[in-house]
């Protein structure tokens, strides 16, 4: 029950920002999970955003005692590697197992949606006695007055955690569906930070990563929280 309450609170908190966890799925066969060595991978053509995401997620996981490698540090996923075949991915998974990786966290944008919201606050307007000309004149402003509507873009993203443990089938453990509303390219680091925080909060509460370790005040990463 505590977990349900916390997740509802998490959904409410993040819905108040421009980055929202709108839904998630967790494997019913996994109560708890403790990754020890993780590959983080951001799939995007935006090189700067990919670097920012992988760096921030790496830092947060390391604060929880997990060894992490960015995909950018692997030649298979370098910025100039191009498309990767299924056979190459199979070889990569075998390589990761040989190097004692047990987890992959993959993030990607799966859709972009342009939205328009019209202002609907007409508290002093009597709907019962509305006349044709009143109706027409009032609503034509929607199309000619920018104050009557707000345009914005929503990016639909997904982050997934996969187990690549040698003792069990390679499987999906968790997937979060996250919406990012009108991200500001000039504030990329802040947007990524909010996104990563949403991911980490969900994984922690679902017992898929451990809570953050206590760090001494003079530790370099203690100032990054």
From TrEMBL:
Protein name: Cardiolipin synthetase
């Amino acid at each position: 029950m505590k977990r349900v309450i916390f997740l509802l609170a998490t959904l409410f908190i993040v819905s108040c920002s421009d980055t929202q966890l709108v839904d998630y799925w967790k494997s019913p066969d996994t109560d708890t999970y403790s990754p020890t060595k993780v590959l983080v991978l951001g799939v995007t053509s935006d090189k700067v955003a990919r670097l920012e995401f992988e760096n921030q997620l790496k830092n947060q996981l390391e604060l929880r005692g997990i060894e992490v490698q960015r995909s950018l540090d692997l030649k298979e996923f370098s910025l100039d590697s191009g498309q990767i075949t299924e056979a190459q991915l199979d070889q990569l998974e075998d390589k990761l197992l040989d190097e004692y990786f047990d987890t992959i966290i993959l993030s990607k944008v799966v859709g972009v949606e342009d939205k328009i919201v019209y202002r609907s606050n007409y508290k002093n307007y009597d709907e019962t006695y509305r006349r044709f000309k009143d109706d027409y004149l009032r609503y034509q402003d929607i199309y000619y007055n920018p104050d009557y509507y707000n345009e914005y873009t929503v990016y639909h993203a997904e982050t997934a955690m996969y187990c690549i443990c040698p003792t069990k089938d390679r499987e999906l453990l968790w997937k979060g569906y996250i919406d990012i509303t009108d991200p500001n390219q000039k504030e990329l680091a802040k947007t990524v930070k909010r996104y990563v925080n949403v991911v980490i909060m969900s994984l922690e509460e679902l017992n898929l990563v451990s809570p953050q370790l206590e760090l001494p005040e003079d530790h370099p990463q203690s100032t990054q929280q």
